[in-house]
Amino acid sequence: MKIEKFWQTKKWRTDKIPEKDLIDSLLKKTFEIVPSKQSLVPYKIIVLGPDSKLKKEMKQASKTYFQPAYELDSPYVIVITERKIEKVSPSIQRRIWKKHPYKKIMNIGSALIEKSVEVGMFATIFTELCLEKELSLGYTECFPDKINEQFKDEFMITDPFLILSVGYSNQNRSLKAKDEYKPDIDEIINYE
Amino acid sequence: MSNTFKLLEDRHHVIHYKEEVPPKEVVDKALWEAWKTSPSKNNAMPWKVFVMGPEHKEEKIKVWRIIRGNHVDREKLAVEEGEANKTEGGWKGKQNPFYEHIKTGAYLFAIHAKPRQPNPFYEQQVKEGMYFDQAWESQINKFIDTSAVEVGMFIQNLSSYLLEKNIDVSYTSCFYRDIKKWHDIGLNYAEYRPIILMTCGYGKSYRKDTISSFAKREDKKPEFKEIVKWI
Known about the structure:
By secondary structure, chain A is α+β, with helices and mostly antiparallel strands.
């Protein structure tokens, strides 16, 4: 698996930008194979490309905050946020007509754990497909609150689940400090 | 075609697993690889994977009861809240077959929330004023959504490593969220709320082979353009 070569990228090449078609095809492939409970896909994916005016505005706004949003430096910024489900497949629609309780997962702000797990699965498959094409990625889970506040009407309904930065890396190693490591595997995996 | 695409395209939800058990060392290696390759905010990994192997048949049945009980209760609640006008008794009066994998999977991975102390790097940052919310039990309900994104990454990596070894995997996210319900029936291994359940083994029967032709044709995802928007 290519994921073994993954590190968090923060510096991006500006002389070499991935083609839009490549990113779009990788998103399509990911979407095709990612599992989703009852095929609902309760999230949406907003792509801010290299020429996105909105991305530039967000970058400009971030300069006024305490923590600059470095994740906006990459050529492609992919924001994954909640999706209000208004249209469903005929199979699910039939169950809704039969009064099957789908309200919880379809509503904004509910079933966030289930939605988050699915987003993590999407991000991981997309990452693997990007790495196969020599692309690099960065993940962000904390987006400045003020950016959310200022730009949410543009495309976000709630805080994003995850932000992916994608492009060609300008780093030749991980920028992680040596004493910044995960908990030991014995603390994470427990055989009963 | 991409190796990853082919591998994941061939994955299907398992109804029943075979009795044959995948070698423990293969499962163990896949868990190690998933742990190694899955990222975590502040390297906290504020969750824990409880592995129930082939010898834990009784515990798996208890977990299945947690799922079944939740399904029945959710239906009753939906009627009480006006979202439904009748219950199906869990699954048309029968047992929902899509939860059977919990009982027959050779390995059941139950992933629960777990607060974590910072590593030396973040310990230093905390001294300088950083708030490390993943360390606090009282904050679990606030950080669990970000933890769940990471858990999704972990189970996806674990799935890929197992699928590479021709071991099938399946998931369930329907169960009681309240850990007290787990403790009440003797599932005392975890202290905190569950996030996801995953099983692995060699598949004997799959959901794709049991659903109606209508479901096969129409039970599909929304259109790509409904999910992805370029700005």
